[in-house]
Amino acid sequence: MKININKQFKIIKYIIIIILIIIEIENKSKINCLTGCETLSSELCLAAYPMCMSLILTSCCPGQVSLCLEIDTVIGYISNKKLEIQNCLRNLQTGVFYELWGDINEIPGYEIIPIPNITCKELNCESKGFDCIYESVADCEEPESLCCQPEPVCTNFLKSINSKIIFGRTRCDLPCVDGYVCRMVNDVKTCLPTSCDIVQCDVGTECLPLIGVGIVSCFKVIENLTTTTVLINNNSNNNNNGSGEIIVERTNQTVSCELSNNSCPSGFECSTYNPLNSALCIPYGSFNFFNEIFECGNCPTGWICRKFGWSGVCIEFERNLQSINNTPICFGGTCLSNQFCNTTSQQCEFESCEDDTCHNEMKCFQYHPSSPRVCSYWEITPTIKFPSSLPPFFEHFIEFEGK
After folding, report:
1. Higher model confidence: residue 313 or residue 321?
2. How far is CA 269 from CA 165, 171, 244, in A?
3. What is the gyration radius of the CA atoms in the chain, in angstroms?
4. Average of pLDDT values for 246-260?
5. How many whole angstroms separate alpha carbon 126 and alpha carbon 219?
6. Which among 23, 105, 26 has a CA at the least distance from the CA of 67?
7. How far is residue 148 CA from its own chain's centroid?
8. Where is each DSCP-N domain found (predicted)?
9. Mind listing the pLDDT tens digit for each residue in 133-158?
10. Does the predicted model carry a pTM greater than 0.70?
């Protein structure tokens, strides 16, 4: 009976030895396969030392990656590291870039590429009928690595006239190259040009700034006639006899309205502010999308100017208080320099809107006598809303409403 027990222990011992041998052979077969150390995890890489060794590389985004390579490859790379980045390493599966500070052998599953430095000018997308924009190659914000700068790509983005383009206000912080700025376009971070000096437009188009967006783009040129004649067909309600003839004269890129026969039909006026930049009869008081850009010089003296797209508003407000010695106390308070103390309402008030308060064609409105007057062109007035937190109108202030 004792002999049988000893035999059983020997059999178990041999079985354990055989299992250990099989495990060792399996590990070595993994290490010596076609892709070698590259297929091993960090734990197996440590177990495979001294055949394999981990190499830590820096990627675009915060954090590092550990690659398992043959020990000779790792030692050779570390021994010959330079003071500057030499090349970039790209994972063919994930597309993630890593920095290489020295020479290294080819790594299965990875691609060694030069530091990207191609520009939109070199890509020459225009010759292929496309525009060039810079796109991010990293998922994180503000990648600082030279291997992770936005790369130029050819696209038909700026030429898609019929597509709906949405410029968002989400934080956009791609490290764009000089002359480009980051903008959210359809929820995609994109580097777009800021100067026409770096944009080459197709024939029949010209480079113009997108007001309020801070970028430039190519727009179709509307040809202007040197001299043209516009005939006005008067209807039965018009008192003019015959047709009124408008002669358009262009001098130094300016157009003037000169009526050779009476004037435009009733309810119309001659205007050069239109898409054709020509003298045309348009309905009186029409809103001109192509009017001149708003100038702060149109605001009353001392008022604050705020541009609003192509238009703007003027606000009656003075930041500095007058000296208490020069300004009487107004029922426990001190008025602004452009206010007066109303002894009836017992508060500091602004003057009310008058017909000549604002520049021609600008509208003056005022919420409350204690609120400053505001001048604006009528086309942007509907976009101005009073905060819901303001108190309601008082009956004795109703005269100010709508002025």
Report:
1. 313
2. 35, 46, 12
3. 38
4. 40
5. 14
6. 105
7. 20
8. 37-155
9. 777 777 666 667 788 878 787 776 55
10. no
